[in-house]
Design the sequence.
């Protein structure tokens, strides 16, 4: 695989920065590797990024599509709505462009709903780099801080997070149901929807996990 990746990296490095900028206007020819090369010309960096994307996107994409088709197989009305949007935006035979894919809101909502119920990383863990505290989880009511010693491994469930009723205030749709229409009115607050997990900004007193 390294030889193949190097071939693509070498080819994009043969294109100068000015030409890459011109290519950015043509979504049919401009891709992720071009965007990386526009900001960094280090071949080792480009190779590492491409390999990381290839490895990280294969299984997560396959799992998401599997769960999507599982849900679509049980919900013909969602299939019909998706089909109609595709016909309206793309047509029956044309290949969708990037702009068209971005404009298909129902498709986006359906994928978001799939990732909500079936996140690509349903559980994860972090190790405390310093002695620190979690803001809540302790005490009789679970609202008090919890001390965490350096070296402690903290496990957390994104799957469970996505199903907590308190994150759906103002929505009358059951969090346990697969319902793309919830995304028309429901907008998750920060750190309540993490299908691919998330990274916080590293500050001197917050870089703890």
Sequence:
């Amino acid at each position: 695989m390294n030889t193949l990746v190097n071939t693509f990296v070498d080819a994009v490095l043969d294109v100068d920065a000015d030409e890459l900028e011109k290519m950015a206007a043509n979504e049919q020819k401009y891709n992720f590797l071009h965007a990386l090369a526009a900001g960094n010309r280090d071949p080792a960096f480009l190779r590492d990024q491409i390999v990381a994307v290839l490895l990280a996107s294969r299984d997560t994409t396959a799992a998401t599509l599997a769960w999507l088709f599982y849900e679509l197989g049980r919900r013909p009305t969602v299939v019909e709505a998706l089909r109609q949007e595709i016909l309206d935006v793309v047509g029956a035979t044309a290949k969708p462009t990037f702009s068209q894919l971005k404009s298909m809101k129902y498709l986006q909502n359906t994928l978001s709903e799939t990732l909500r119920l079936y996140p690509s990383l349903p559980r994860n863990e972090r190790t405390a780099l310093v002695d620190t505290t979690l803001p809540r989880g302790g005490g009789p009511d679970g609202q008090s801080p919890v001390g965490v010693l350096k070296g402690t491994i903290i496990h957390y469930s994104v799957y469970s997070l996505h199903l907590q009723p308190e994150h759906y205030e103002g929505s009358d749709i059951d969090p346990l149901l697969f319902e793309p229409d919830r995304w028309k009115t429901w907008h998750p607050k920060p750190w309540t929807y993490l299908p691919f997990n998330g990274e916080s900004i590293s500050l001197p007193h917050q870089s703890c996990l």
